[in-house]
Amino acid sequence: MTQLHILDLFQGIATLAAAEPTILFGRIFLMMLGLLLIYLGQKGILEALLMIPMGLGMATVNAGVLFLQAGKMGTLFLDPLASSTDQVVSQLQINWLQPIYTLTFSNGLIACLVFLGIGSLLDVGYVMQRPFRSMFLAICGEVGTLIAFPLGVWMGLPLNEAAATATIGGADGPMVLFASLILAPEIFVPITVVGYLYLGLTYGGYPYLIKAIVPKRLRAIQMPPDDTKPISAGEKMIFAVVTCLLLSLLFPVAAPLFLALFLGVIVRESGLNYFYDLFSNQILYGATFFLGLVLGVLCEANTILDPKVLILLVIGILALIFSALGGLFGGYVLYWLSGGKYNPVIGIAAVSCVPTTSKVAQKVVTAANRNAIILPHALGANISGVITSAVFAAVLISMLRAG
Question: What's the predicted TM-score (pTM) here?
Answer without folding.
Answer: 0.88
